[in-house]
């Protein structure tokens, strides 16, 4: 299934329209979550002001940056292979500088410079505005590092440049960091405390995207439901805020409504929701606005109450079911997807069966499934032995994936014969005679191009399907055009 993340896959190289005055060449590659791709756009925007144009040719670059992911060991190994490649090129072109950005930079800090000596520059996710100074140091022949995590930085004042995209869909960051401390997860350590971005700057970015022809935005955060703006400051300090700040505070449900009303013709999506923080208000707001897509990515990680507790996921299996029931009551045709980890420390066969029975109950549309990978420094690594053999983790993973595929197919089959609204994003990977887009529930739909074009909202009659893709024929423009 294409939605299973392949961490060995080549990263994506960002390309921007060249600025004439710029003479230096930047090769910037990104791995990991959508937030990293979004951050690379911010970095490229900062460096465009420093005389850099982007290039897709590694060999031509003056500066090579890799935005990295630490979420699982595999992700780090992939980046390491790339660093080897950059260093091989550097042997031929010794003036080239190499920098590591993002979560691995934050996790390994100066180790890259002192022990491994494989990079010139190490920059954590909250330090990108310091890049001009850091580059100056590098130019002067010194190694440069800034991995300070911030309690305020949201890059709200930097307009990311998005010229490499399809011009139709864009990501807009609304929070950074995470305070949840799930015991398996490295994110709170690499991305720091959770901060919300000023809603005004979010709306301005969305309005700007709309004026440039974009048709869909995805609001991004590690845990969007805990978005809270009361004039700045961390969420934990909200109680100390003035009465006025509290009265005018904007939560995630409010933000969704603001964005939906600011651009009623734009599709609005968001990711990721944590079940413990998702409120009924958010679900009701989704139901109220037609332009908010009927799709929720709702990671569960495990179906066992005991494992959920060990993971510090602050909800039970039953509470999760109640949330699912409420979503389906309020938005009957809502697409729902999951993240699941198999083989978390101490997971028994019975716990694993609980995960399978949870899948049976929810019957998700699709999912992202992973074998547990111990991350140094996390609570799980400190307190629990990584005691499930790899073969067992993988067998359980295969069982979870097989069941998910069955459910995905049941769900796509249900769509056959229906007419769904699709936003055309790009040419289909398999055929240059077909368009590819998604329906509101986030399932990919492909259909013959005819006279339609990228960016059109089209009604498509579904005629067949695979486990993850719907196929059909356009029957006309949708009323949203
Ligand atoms: N809230 C975040 C979650 C980031 S991590 C978001 O915005 O998506 C994405 C997924 O990676 C998690 O939901 C979890 O299923 C998986 N994951 C995180 N740490 C992991 C680990 N140590 N081993 C295996 N999978 C992990
Ligand atoms: Fe990680 Fe849990 Fe936050 S999975 S990103 S600590 S919600």
UniProtKB/TrEMBL annotation:
Residues 24-140 form the MTTase N-terminal domain. [4Fe-4S] cluster 2 binds at residues 178, 182, 185. Its cofactor is [4Fe-4S] cluster. Residues 164-411 form the Radical SAM core domain. Its EC number is 2.8.4.3. It holds the Pfam family Radical_SAM. InterPro entries: Elp3/MiaA/NifB-like_rSAM, Methylthiotransferase, Methylthiotransferase_CS, Methylthiotransferase_N, Methylthiotransferase_N_sf, MiaB_methiolase, rSAM, rSAM_horseshoe. Keywords: 4Fe-4S, Cytoplasm, Iron, Iron-sulfur, Metal-binding, S-adenosyl-L-methionine, Transferase, tRNA processing. [4Fe-4S] cluster 1 binds at residues 33, 69, 103. One of its GO terms (cellular component) is cytosol. Monomer. HAMAP family: tRNA_metthiotr_MiaB. Belongs to the methylthiotransferase family. MiaB subfamily. This is tRNA-2-methylthio-N(6)-dimethylallyladenosine synthase. It comes from Leeuwenhoekiella aequorea. The gene is miaB.
């Amino acid at each position: 299934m294409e939605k299973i993340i392949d961490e060995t896959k080549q990263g994506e190289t960002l390309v921007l329209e060249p600025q004439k005055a710029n003479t230096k060449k930047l090769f910037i590659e990104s791995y990991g979550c959508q937030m990293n791709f979004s951050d690379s756009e911010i970095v490229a925007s900062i460096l465009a002001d420093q005389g850099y144009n982007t290039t897709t040719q590694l060999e031509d670059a003056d500066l090579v940056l890799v935005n990295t992911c630490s979420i699982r060991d595999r992700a780090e190994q992939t980046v390491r292979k790339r660093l080897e490649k950059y260093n091989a090129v550097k042997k031929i072109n010794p003036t080239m500088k190499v920098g590591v950005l993002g979560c691995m930079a934050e996790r390994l800090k100066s180790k890259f410079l002192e022990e491994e000596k494989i990079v010139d520059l190490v920059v954590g996710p909250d330090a990108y505005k310091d890049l001009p100074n850091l580059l100056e140091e590098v130019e002067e022949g010194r190694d440069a590092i800034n991995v300070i995590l911030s309690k305020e930085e949201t890059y709200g004042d930097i307009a990311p440049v998005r010229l490499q995209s399809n011009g139709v869909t864009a990501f807009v960051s609304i929070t950074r960091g995470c305070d949840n401390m799930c015991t398996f997860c490295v994110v709170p350590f690499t991305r720091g405390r959770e901060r919300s971005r000023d809603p005004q700057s979010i709306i301005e970015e969305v309005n700007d995207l709309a004026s440039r022809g974009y048709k869909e935005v995805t609001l991004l955060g590690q845990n969007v439901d805990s978005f809270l703006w009361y004039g700045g400051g961390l969420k934990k300090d909200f109680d100390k805020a003035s009465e006025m700040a509290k009265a005018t505070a904007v939560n995630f449900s409010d933000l969704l409504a603001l964005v939906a009303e600011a651009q009623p013709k734009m599709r609005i999506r968001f990711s990721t929701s944590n079940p413990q923080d998702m409120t009924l208000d958010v679900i009701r707001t989704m139901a109220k606005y037609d332009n908010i897509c009927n799709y929720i990515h709702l990671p569960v990680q495990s179906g066992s109450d005991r494992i959920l507790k060990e993971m510090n996921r602050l909800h039970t299996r039953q509470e999760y079911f109640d949330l699912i029931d409420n979503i389906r009551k309020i938005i009957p045709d809502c697409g729902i997807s999951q993240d699941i980890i198999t083989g978390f420390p101490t997971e028994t066969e019975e716990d694993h069966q609980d995960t399978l029975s949870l899948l049976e109950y929810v019957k998700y549309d699709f999912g992202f499934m992973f074998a547990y990978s111990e991350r140094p420094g996390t609570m799980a690594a400190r307190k629990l032995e990584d005691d499930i053999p790899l073969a067992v983790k993988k067998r359980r993973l295969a069982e979870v994936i097989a069941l998910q595929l069955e459910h995905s197919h049941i769900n796509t089959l249900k769509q056959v014969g229906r007419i769904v609204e699709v936003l055309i994003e790009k040419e289909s990977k398999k055929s240059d005679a077909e368009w590819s887009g998604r329906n509101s529930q986030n399932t990919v739909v492909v259909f013959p191009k005819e006279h339609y074009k990228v960016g059109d909202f089209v009604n498509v009659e579904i005629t067949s399907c695979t486990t993850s893709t719907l196929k059909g024929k356009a029957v006309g423009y949708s009323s949203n055009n």
